[in-house]
Amino acid sequence: MRRKIIAGNWKMNKTPSETITLINQLKPLVATEEADVVFCVPAISLTTAVTAAKGSNIQIGAENMHFEENGAYTGEIAPAMLDDIGVRYVIIGHSERREYFAETDVTVNKKVLKAFEHGITPIICCGESLTQREQGVTIDFIRQQIKIAFLNVTPDQAKTAVIAYEPIWAIGTGKVATSAQAQEVCKAIRDCISEIYDTDTAEAIRIQYGGSVTADSAAELFSQPDIDGGLVGGASLKPDFGKIVNYK
Ligand SMILES: O=C[C@H](O)COP(=O)(O)O
Question: Which domains are present in the chain?
């Protein structure tokens, strides 16, 4: 039985001071022993968030990182910097990074490899656009994203990875995928991992759904056999996130 993992992606929201307030507000609401709970916050608030979350079940994740160790990359954050301050997860290849910051499947793969090198768990995002869904190429497109993201990743590393399936048309739109749509793609992702590695790896890897998840939709989505939790945007900034974490 895979342990659920429910992560909030704060995106570009909340100042460091607001981060302390929100974490203190959410701490009792997201308390659970049944799932991993991760808050992915803006880089400037990571240290603050790690301190604010101490003593709770909340783990802190970054929203991005660079794939090089260090060097002349003005404005970037290196994996060792995240590791040094106690960041345990990093979102990689979110569709907003792909769309606005030119991330590609190849840079996603480099970042995934580097995150593992530093013992940071990658939350690897994939997902189709509305056009791709309408053209019937969703599964083909996502299989390609997954195959490239996992190039040279060992089976032991892959077992600990998290994949977030986020249909682009469902992000921030209020149009949540139906549980059948989400399950179909998450199963296809697991089948793809099984083809790349083996059934043990496919059974171990955790696959989240993301895209307009709310307290109302969480229970049905997270009860699907191949959905192991969620990557939540807007609703992770509200007390409702407590209901999403404790969705049962
Ligand atoms: O990473 C989270 C996703 O982009 C979902 O965002 P949303 O819940 O606001 O639709």
Answer: 4-245 (3.20.20.70)
